[in-house]
Amino acid sequence: MENKMKIAVIGAGASGMTAAITAAKQGAEVTLFEKNERVGKKILATGNGKCNLGNLEFSMDQYYCEDKDKLQKMFGIFSTWDAVAFFENMGLMVKDKNGYLYPYSEQASSVLDVLRMELDREKVKLIAEAEIVSLKHEDGENLFVLKDAKGNSYFFEKVIIACGSPASLKKGDGMTGYALAKMLGHKVKDVVPGLVQLKSDETFIKALSGVRCQAGISLLVNGEKVDDEKGELQFTDYGISGIPVFQFSRQVSYAMKEGKDVSVLVDFYPDQDDKAFTYMSRLRYDVLLDKTVENYLTGTLNKKINMVLLKQAGLKPDMKAQEVGYKTIWEIMKKSRAFPIHISGVNAMENAQVCAGGVDFGQMNQELESEIVKGLYFAGEMVDVDGKCGGYNLQWAWSSGYIAGRNAAGGSTFEGD
């Protein structure tokens, strides 16, 4: 009887389950460890409970990592369409909503259900409520020794660490995987909130709480523009939120960790070109000359925004437009195209959707095997790779899980290997 490769997968999240299924399909004997009572808890919260599986508008611009050439090769092995086929072969119907991929049911539980069914079908052994706290490699032997928090020991030929990150977890949780990587000599880049809300110490923030609007947002670090996004901006009682804010929040996290000054400039008229905006502003003044400055702004932006603009200009709402003069009104209108908000921090890790940072991407090869310890693999958020909103982080989970699982089981995914 042929001896099967014995592989341990630590962490039963999106990447861990994908790795376990893939390795088992290659004929390996796979044991999947999960510290929680049930697998895939985070999957249920993705995409507001609908699970945005991936995105057809795929590009490397959506990812942050040290080596995009290596990352691109990985996505060439297991692409968005490969992920669709992977799930459809397990029985999940997938649909396209403007490039965003979702389960046809629009229920994240459907994704988790088919993954669990496939784990059962491939006879993956699941050990739940088992937090692996120690990982050793016997030098000179093809053997890894794992120990859980209860003192149990386990022995395997290969190990895939797919523990995920502390994103969306209570303070102090989610760091186990990084600790295991460090035990075997790996570097871990500072782990910070990735897709998360931003805090502001501006006095007007509470007055704008609840406002949602389309906006262009530029990110400034030490006064220099480093990024810009466009989309729905949301004001909260502590700062700003929304997809465009999430998209560059990881840059804010690192900038603030380095003690840099961070602010944003908001364009409340993102679809207006300068010429049309100037014409509109002057025309309104000529037509509403005898009205109040509040009347002048009525019908433009959200009233809360207009009131903040007037207050910052030192104007009372009942002052006449003609009395104020067009020069002053034009300054208000210009400010609405570059409205400054100082950023005082990022929201807590438990509010983040993903984390930036993780195990050094340069310390593993393109098959996600460690360059330090042969037979050790990484997948998912464990690795210092993160993406923007829109299904890109789950795509990394599927792709990295597949590559780590297939290669750990001996089925190389790269030509010439």
From TrEMBL:
Cofactor(s) recorded in Swiss-Prot or TrEMBL: FAD
Record keywords, A-Z: FAD, Flavoprotein
Record keyword Disulfide bond present: no
SUPFAM superfamilies (UniProt xref): FAD/NAD(P)-binding domain (SSF51905), HI0933 insert domain-like (SSF160996)
RsdA/BaiN/AoA(So)-like Rossmann fold-like domain span: 6-406
Span of domain RsdA/BaiN/AoA(So)-like insert: 192-354
PANTHER family: OS12G0638800 PROTEIN (PTHR42887:SF2)
NCBIfam families membership: aminoacetone oxidase family FAD-binding enzyme (TIGR00275)
Name of this chain's protein: NAD(P)/FAD-dependent oxidoreductase
Organism of this sequence: Parablautia muri
